[in-house]
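2024-03-11 09:14:02 DEBUG pipeline.ingest accepted 1 chain
2024-03-11 09:14:02 DEBUG pipeline.ingest length=447
2024-03-11 09:14:03 DEBUG pipeline.predict start
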Amino acid sequence: MRSVLAVVCCVCVLASAGMCREVRVTVYNSNIGVVRDSRSTTIEKGISHISMDEIASRIDPTSVKLEISGRGDIAVMEQNFEFDLLSPDKLLNKYLEHEVDITTSEDVKYHGTLIGFDSRNLVLSLAGERVAMVSRDKVTDIVLPAIDTGLIVKPTLFWTVNSSSSARADLEVAYITEGMNWHAEYIATIAEDDDELELASWVSVENRSGATYPDAKLKLIAGDVHRVQDKVHIRGGRTMDYAEMAPQPMLEEKAFFEYHMYTLDSRTTLRDKEVKQIQLFPAKDVAALKQYNLDSHKGEKVRVVMRFDNSEESGLGVPLPEGKVRVFKADVDGSLEFLGEDRIDHTPRDEEVKIYVGNAFDIVTERVRTDFSKISDRVVMETFEISVSNHKAEDVVLTITEHIHGDWDVRRESHPFEKLKSDTIEFQLPVEADGEAVLTYTVRRKF
């Protein structure tokens, strides 16, 4: 059915041709974007129609705001968003009761009136009151007469306006669209002694809104923006290799309402179905601490966590948008090896950041309840023993987090603890190189 597609090109004349265009896009990390599209056109005196194509197909039509500036009084009477995009079946439907020419793979030609069709057959009324059913699998060409089908090839906004004079006018359309998202990605390279890391950040801007925004002024908003609708999750797109990326323009950060705004200092083109990556900040050396953590709610594996303060004193002190942190470390030959990755939440200045890298290979633990007694129907006494074997060549300090529910009181403990919350305590257990250590505590619980 080659000719069906060929007809499309001559069906609709797009109104944006020749327009001077300026685009500004603000992308939120909640699958939405705000587009401000400015163009100029001529508006005729009296009632006339204007249109704007190259609009996002995932637009929220109820969010559209049009501002017109020009000579005289211009009133907007009606607004429509057309998204009934042209397809072969929609086109055939418009040609019902019209004459068409069909050629099959067997070089059989039909000329008649199209009176019906489905996914398998085309039904033609031929001369002499005959009817032909032509299998669509065998159709190679359909020639259609030139008529106004009313179908469009791109999502388009239409307005009916009333102007007191004929004049050149500037249009600015602002609207919300789904299918736009951004997130931060961090590269952390741990120093040889594990007491510092080099942190660099990029942002990935994803455009699946159904439109391309050429030479746009780009802003990004970080924060939890409330919307009265269900969240929509989109699939990830293609990404880039950080090592192969050239330096990019910088993003300027500032506080904006209860969020943070990042403005790109140059214009960029956001193509549909593209992931664009832009540098958020260059590599910074940050003082860090490696911590070994054993949490009774997370099994008997020892978790390795890199901790640092997001402060100027530590070498950072910038708002960190939510995103994934990939952790690397250089081997003796200079090659960077991947250690693990974690996701951080939005983190303001002067707050602590914890990155869970992976589990320690050479530290083995065992947690057992060694004693239990029931004092009454609501009161019990329990003793726990946590054994740790350190097969590493250096001493370690293991942070042990225990969770105790109900009204409780620790009666005996082999090592001091700190109460973090009403149901959480934390011990620091030193373990010598290639050595063992045991933590015990007894708790009385009422529930």
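2024-03-11 09:14:41 DEBUG pipeline.report The first helix runs from residue 2 to 8.
2024-03-11 09:14:41 DEBUG pipeline.predict end
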